[in-house]
Amino acid sequence: RIQAKESDCRNNHNHHISKALVESANQIIGLEDLNLTGMTKRAAPKKNEDGKGYTRNRARAKSGLNRSLLGVALGQLATYIAYKARKVGKIAISELNPMNSSKECACCGSLNTERPDQATFICLSCGNRDNADSNAAKVLKKRLIHYIKENTFAKSKTRKSIVKRKKNWLTEPTPV
């Protein structure tokens, strides 16, 4: 009963967030292509160097992180954004590569960066100082623009149509 109520609240919350995002967005919405199954995998046990027993792998902490990641229902949110964007004539692209988006500089593209704390981003190449989340959003925006310029999202796979023809459907008229 409690889990059903939590699920309903999460569902309602995702509907509200997706509606607000779609309404405030321009024509195209870019989402990271998150590998949720890979992110929520179980922590692998590690054997000791001597081969006897196991070292601590922080499996409890990982299971707590997995629970919180799955509890937010990020996949459901992406699905809601996609269908609501389609409904109002906008495009939601959820194929942006998130790799190094928090480490890459939005100004110069360098990975020579520093994060003195969780919120601060400093580029050692060009001196750019920014909020880390804001910088990552700018990097993803650049990737979205590059993705659109390549026209990879416009090229849909064409289906091969199979035409069945009857043999000899057109016969030569016989001379009389």
TrEMBL record:
It comes from the Bacteria. Residues 75-139 form the Cas12f1-like TNB domain. The keyword DNA-binding applies. GO terms for molecular function: DNA binding. Keywords: DNA-binding. This is Transposase. It comes from Vibrio cholerae.
